[in-house]
Amino acid sequence: MTNKTMLVVFVSGLVCFLINYFLGNSLLFGLANAVLFSAYAYWYCRTIGLKRSWQLLPLLALMPVFTFAYEYPFIYLIEGLIFLTMVWSAEAKSNLLRWALIFVLLGLLVYGFLLTSKVLSGPLSWDRERLIYPQHLFGLEIARQQRDSLYLPYRARFLAFNDLTSYGYFYFGHLFNFLSLETAYRSLLLVNVFYFLLGLINFKKLKGNLWLPVLMVLLVPCLLTGLVKTPDTLSSVIIGRGAYLGLILFGIEVSKKRWPYLLLWLVSCLLILVPR
Amino acid sequence: MKKIGLILLAFLILLVRFCCLDRVPIHLSNDEISIAYDAYSVGLTGQDEHGQFLPLAFESHGVHKAPLYAYLAILPIRVLGNTEQAVRVVSVVAGLLAIVFLGLLVYQLTDNRCLGLISALTLAWSPFHIYSSRVALEANLALGLLIPGIYFFWKWEKQNRNFWLVVSALFFSLSIYAYHLEWMLVPLLVLGLLYFKSAPKISFKGVGLVGLIVVFCLPLFLDYLFGSGRLAGASGKMVWGDPAIHGYLLDGGNPLLLKLGLVGKTYLSNLSAYFNLGSWF
Fold first, then answer.
1. Mutate to test the interface with B, among A148, A170, A181 (most CBs of B within 10 A)
2. Residues of B in contact with A172 (CB under 8 A)
3. Which terminus in chain A has less CB density within 10 A, N or C?
């Protein structure tokens, strides 16, 4: 890593902080967002060996997931721990330690997600009503599935609609209602969605032990979102933002050219500025 | 043995599309009734239900429908009478055209007969296509004309015979007459096909294809620009036809870039809702 890269990481952290400040976030949250962004950016620059994408870091600092202030400061502590566990597990020398850290990471991700989605509002205070299953909604869903099943022949009905599939349809319906293009560009900006997908397609080219922690941070919050009744767009994805940043940087690195990013970035800014 | 299997499959495909056309779906929808009545009326008097002589957009329930379906339904309605089957049979034929030409297109592109057959059968047995082929649906007619258009385009590219160019242009143009969505889809598709075929230099015949489509669709364009305004009414269904967006676009004080941004954002939002996988479950 050169001094230039370090400078750009610092400047992008500053940009992140200033944007947070101008958006009216409190100084503490703005600082937390900026520090986390810089930490992730620094780590990815070091581990992925970025050659092209590091110059674009100040533009990446404008991603809505890094300019969103979650009202619960404890989340930032959890996210800091998630970052450290990611780093340690990717750089652990022994396999045993690595897997132990991966399990810690899993626990932190689940705990962090439950907090951000407000299913858990204190150490032991569960709000089961925020989940999709134990409530009247599931009854309505079963009634809908009973109606749908009437279109199938009697014997085939039990294959398509049984205890297992009923839960599955309900869960996946919720999950995919949330994981849409709109959610993606609202939380990452349109330009970053494209490069995120590019990074995802080339995911297996990620170096060394980096892929597993990144995959965990990416998948665990996404999969858990399907369990929440009304997930909030930015609150739900905030825990996974480290993985998004990594894949976007990797996507830019794979694409080889920078000018399409700049062009698409301008379009994305235009989309943010429009009134609706 | 193979031939018998194929004939049996073809028979089954025909059966699930033609069988009980009057009862499944259980009755004609409002749109189907409107198409049937317009076809019946134009067939008898040359005028639609609103007294318009040979219109290029059929008004029904406050919207303006593309004209081709109603015109094609005239013949079956004259032959079979004013029945459910008569109005739906056009869609069945369009569905069969889509299946056959999809198979041929994939065969043409891959030189793999098996792949072509699998593609055609996949479309033939997909529940959505069976359903949309059994109702008088303009979108299904447009699809049945669009796929042959692409097929003849590739045939022209392979054999370089101008005849296929004209046939391709004809099918593309007919699909524009069949459904409003094709107003946007066909130009993008044709330009895309031409780009991948003849880039980086512009081919003279490629320009010819575009020119032919423009000539074939001239009545539509002229009606849109200078006609009764009925087709222009159809554009009210586009993103910019939404009253909230339309108001913003008409406001002279708003910068052009933001107007474009608003259309783009609404488009993305619609696209996201359309490809929402949650509705599959």
1. A181
2. 277-278, 280-281
3. C
Biggest CA–CA distance in chain B, Å, is: 72
Sign of the Cα torsion B177, B182, B183, B188 reads negative
Rounded alpha-carbon distances, angstroms, from residue A116 to A58, A80, A113, A247, B231: 26, 14, 5, 22, 50
For residue A14, count other CB atoms closer than 10 A to its CB.
Answer: 14
- Answer whether A88's CB lies under 8 Å from A101's CB: yes
How far apart (Å, rounded) are the C-alpha atoms in residues A48 and B271?
34
Measure in Å the smallest separation between the Cα of B261 and chain A Cα atoms: 5
Runs of H (alpha helix) within B55-203? 68-80, 84-110, 113-125, 127-133, 138-159, 162-178, 182-198
**B132 and B142 Cβ atoms separated by less than 8 Å:** no
C-alpha dihedral over A100, A103, A104, A106, to 10 degrees?
160
The secondary structure of chain A in percent helix, strand, coil, rounded to multiples of 5, reads 75, 0, 20
What token pair was written down for A103?
Answer: 């399990």
Alpha helices, H only, A92-162: 95-116, 136-149, 154-160
Which residues in chain B are closer than 8 Å to A271, comparing Cβ atoms? 261, 264-265, 268
* Residue B210 DSSP symbol: H
Q: Inter-chain contact B260–A270, Cβ cutoff 8 Å?
A: yes
Tell me the backbone φ, ψ of residue B247, rounded to 5 degrees.
-60, -40
Contacts of B245 in chain A (CB under 8 A): 276
Where b means 16+ CB within 10 Å and e means fewer, A135-145 reads eeeeeebeeeb
B204 close to A (CB below 8 A): no
Q: Establish whether this prediction's ipTM goes over 0.85.
A: no
A109-167 pLDDT, tens digit each? 999 888 888 888 776 777 777 787 766 777 888 888 888 888 877 878 888 888 888 88
Contact B181, B131 (CB under 8 A): no
B240 touches chain A (CB under 8 A): no
Tens digit of pLDDT for each residue in B46-99? Answer: 998 888 888 888 888 777 888 999 999 999 999 999 999 999 999 999 999 999
d(CA B34, CA B129) in angstroms, rounded, equals 22
